[in-house]
Structure prediction request, 305 residues.
Amino acid sequence: MVCKKCDTEPVYLLTSGVRLCRSCFIKYFEKKVRKTIRINNLIEKGDKICVAISGGKDSLTVLNILNTLTKKKNFELFALLIDEGIKNYRDFTIKDAEKFCNENKIKLHIVSFKDELGYTLDEMIKILGMKPCTVCGVFRRYLLNKKARELKANKLATGHNMDDEAQTVIMNQFKKNIDVSARLGPMTGVKDDKRFIRRIKPLYLMSEKEVGTYAFLKQLMGKFTECTYENDSFRGDVRDMLNDFEMKHHGVKNNIITSFLEILPMLKNKYKNKSTINACISCKEPTSSDQCKACELKDKLKEKA
Ligand code: SF4
Ligand code: ZN
Prediction:
């Protein structure tokens, strides 16, 4: 079996059964990401885009592709890395992020939980006795939005891929959080609310396996490392379940996303007036209740430390 397009040795088998060689796979991947950007109008002339990076395959892939588009589409970009303080994990990915940004002359800002919040994630979970991903998610979202806004970005690009989004859709179903699903999609947030930086997900239609292959073929990162808390989460259980399904029934993840995109406009319409955005009583950051989740956790940390 050879690459369908150029008769050379294939490196990737698409779910459609088509085999592609290295060069055709890279072309296929970049073209599909550019199409996702174009169809969903993710980037406009004059944008200042903050790319949230971890140094892992997804975020370096999105940074690499957006970096090649800056001149053509006439926008600016910089990278922002949140160092949660996860021993034997984040230290490695920070090195990959710094190397990539240095080589590609991209300005990189690093913000740490320790400097901003007083504790590393490792320390926080010992104090709070909570699931690491819950604490990590709340503070990461909080710092990404706050720092991207302070650095004058009007959009925040993330490396979320199709697997991530399919997991989130299913998790919201399992937890009866349909109003949260109404806020998903390739672009989220409200255009005219300056407090929330709009999020864009250029890898929305690319599977995790495709992103991993692209990052590997383009040699975007060093050794693959996984967060030490990766398996200790509800998301981890949903991910394993979906991977198992995908092995037995090719295309289920893609089908979850395609059908979700079909009902998303109806969900957005149904929940459009149900979430008011207030300023947090403690930190003034945007929140749907009186106090934001980050300040609730900061109070708990003060109480229990
Ligand atoms: Fe944070 Fe959990 Fe991701 Fe680790 S796996 S980086 S703790 S959200
Ligand atoms: Zn707050």
User: Anything to note?
Assistant: The pocket of zinc ion (ligand 2) is lined by residues 280, 282-283, 285, 291-292, 294-295 (CB under 6 Å). The longest strand covers residues 76-83. The mean pLDDT is 92. The radius of gyration is 20 Å.
